[in-house]
Structure formats: C-alpha cells, structure tokens
Amino acid sequence: KRIPPLVLNGIIMLPENTIHEIALIVELYLWIFAIDDASDEKWVSLDEFVTLKDKFLSIGQALGARGHDDDPFEAALVSIVRGMVDAVPDYWERDLWTMHLERLMHGMAQEYRWALDYPDKTPSFEALLAETRWSVGFPISAYSAIPLLRAKDSGEIARAVEASGVAIRLCNDIKSMHREIDEGTINSVALWAAEKNVSTAVAREYVLGRIAAAAQTAQAALTGQTPIPVRRMILDTVHFSRVFYAETDYHLFEIY
What DSSP string runs through the chain? Predict the structure, then answer.
C-alpha cells in the first residue's frame, strides 16, 4: 500500500532521471519504512536495533561492498547503495551520505527509547523535533537524490534539507495525531498541547504555522547558486508532502 505514493514521490524528486534511478529512491524509502516498522512494532529489541545501526553505517562507509546476504535489511541496503554508487561514482559523497544515515538511525533509536518510557517520561516538543526531522526519511533520501541529479552538496542545500525535514515530519504528525493518541504513542502535536496546556486544536494551528515557516526557510535557503533540479527536488517534495498528508498518511494509504 505504500508503493504507489512512494513511486509518485520518487518521480517528483527525479522527474527527468531514468526508471532505474527513480527505483533506487523508491527502494530506499521502502527500506526506511521497513526499518521504522521494525522499531515501532518492537520486532527487534533496542539493543538489537543499535547493533543494526552500526552494521548499516559500515555498509555506507564501504560503499555497499560488504554486508550479509542472509540478513534482508543488510542485503537490501547493500543493493541500494551499490546501485547508487555505480550510477553516479563521480558525484557520490560517501561520508556525507553516511552521516545522514547515522542521523536517520540515531533518530529512530531515540524514538524507540522514548516509546519505551512513554507515558511516564516524555520528551519536549523541541527535543522530539530535533531528532525526528532526520528520522522522517527525507534528509537521507535527498542526499541520495542530489548525486543522482549530478550535483554536490552546499551549505544552502543542507539548510533547506533540514528545514524540509521539519516541515515533512510535522505534516506527518498532524495527519497521524488522532491515530497516535488513540494508540497511546508519542505525537508532537499532542506534546505541544500538553506543554502549553491547550487543546489539540490550538496545538494543530501552531504546528501548521511551524510547517509554513519551515517551508519558507527551505525556499529562502535555496539561492540562485543552487542547481535548478536540486531546488525543484526539495521544494516539490515538501509541497507533495503537504498535499499528501492533508488527505492521508503512508501508514493508511489505500487505492480505491
């Protein structure tokens, strides 16, 4: 059920690239969802999840040259990284990509820790957002798309990607708020409401304002020096996420 919106997202990110390169982005997103499900559903323990993080980082550093075929998570990541490196060897920035993989996994691990403590202990809204802007999946996907667009990173791109991660995470949390409250899981909108002692309706309006501000920050960061395909990839993905999450979310998407 996640494949159709992810394929659309991949096409939005790489509208003029080959089917193979778009497929690599879609496969990466599916891999991220699989890892996220493993932590959310507690399919592995926290210690096992941290061990997975170390294995994945070694795959990134080795440019996909090593991994264990009997582990589906590792085998899938090896295939994805190897495919991307082979597609754009002159543009692939190994250390930068691995840094964003580390941020993704660190954010997911921190969410796992918070979930184990919740509701007895809760993070602040800002502490949650500081981690989940990276674990939402867009930053690592953006730093996979940038080399596939035959471009290199810059400070302005980094600022735009981080701001976009904030916007997309909060779009997700607004849409999933009622479901996550019913499930007894952490949600940033509900956290802000509790911190400020206001209703979730008031908190929702505040978070909508944060989404708009983050989107504006991303747009302002991308100056005329940013390659047009990269600028379009970042801003169009944010726009797609805002429209998509206004209607549904990746956990509940159905085709009718």
Answer: --HHHHHHHHHHHSTTS-HHHHHHHHHHHHHHHHHHHHHHTTSS-HHHHHHHHHHHHHHHHTTT----TTSHHHHHHHHHHHHHHHH-TTT--HHHHHHHHHHHHHHHHHHHHHHHHTTTS---HHHHHHHHHHHTSHHHHHHHHHHHTT----HHHHHHHHHHHHHHHHHHHHHHHHHHHHHT---HHHHHHHHHT--HHHHHHHHHHHHHHHHHHHHHH--TTS-HHHHHHHHHHHHHHHHHHHH--TTT----
Q: Which backbone phi and psi does 223 adopt, to 5 degrees?
A: -85, -175
pTM over 0.85: yes
Residue with tokens 């939402």: 136
Q: Which tokens is 236 given?
A: 């169009």
Here the tokens at position 78 are 């090896």
**Mean pLDDT per 10-residue interval, the chain, length 256 residues:** 87 96 96 93 94 92 76 92 95 96 96 95 97 96 97 95 97 93 95 98 97 97 93 97 82 49
